[in-house]
Amino acid sequence: MRLFFLLLPWLELFTLIQLGVETSALTAIFYVLATFVLGLAVLRRQGVEMFNQMRNAQQGGVLGRQLLVDDMAVGLAGVLLAFPGMITDFVALCVLIGPLRRRLARLFGAPEPEPYRPQYDQSADSAIEGQYTRVDDERTP
């Protein structure tokens, strides 16, 4: 696995050089810029969506497996698209396709995450300490 990560930049460079040889250098440059912009757009959209889901979960909702598996995977796909190269772009496209993403997660042995439910103190003898003033006492003449 280490060897793959050491060779990945060189393989990416090789694929981009081959793209430039087969088409033109401007096409390869345009491809790199287009996938970078697409990756940033995916990251931005996914970040806003995850932020909204976290806010809803904070207000008493439940964080389900969608946030933990699907949304994080789409964020990873955005990062992979932002990196120049055709290998990471292919992996990103595989991750962006929902059914394929879930199948790959099962193939790699990803556990089924339990939904997050915030814990509340339900005990009857809990007290909240503080100071207060009655507003209606101040209004009486």
Give the percentage of residues in beta strands.
Answer: under 5%
Mean pLDDT: 81
Tally of individual helices: 6
Terminal residue distance: 80 Å
Helix-strand makeup class: mainly alpha
Task: Classify the helix fraction into a percent range.
Answer: over 70%
Summarize the helix and strand pattern as letters.
Answer: HHHHHH
Q: Uncertain spans, ≥5 residues at pLDDT below 50?
A: none
Question: The biggest beta sheet, please?
Answer: none
Shape: elongated
- Tell me the radius of gyration: 25 Å
Transmembrane segments: 25-43, 73-98
Region (Disordered): 111-141
Keywords: Membrane, Transmembrane, Transmembrane helix
Pfam families: FxsA (PF04186)
Name its key features.
141 residues; mainly alpha; elongated; transmembrane helix; transmembrane; FxsA; membrane; FxsA family protein
Report on the structure:
This protein is mostly helical. It has a domain of 82 residues. It contains six helices and no strands. The protein starts with a helix and ends with a helix. The mean pLDDT is 81. Keywords: Membrane, Transmembrane, Transmembrane helix. This is FxsA family protein.
Question: Which helices and strands appear, and what pairs or packs with what?
Answer:
Layout: H1 2-22, H2 25-58, H3 65-82, H4 86-96, H5 98-107, H6 135-139
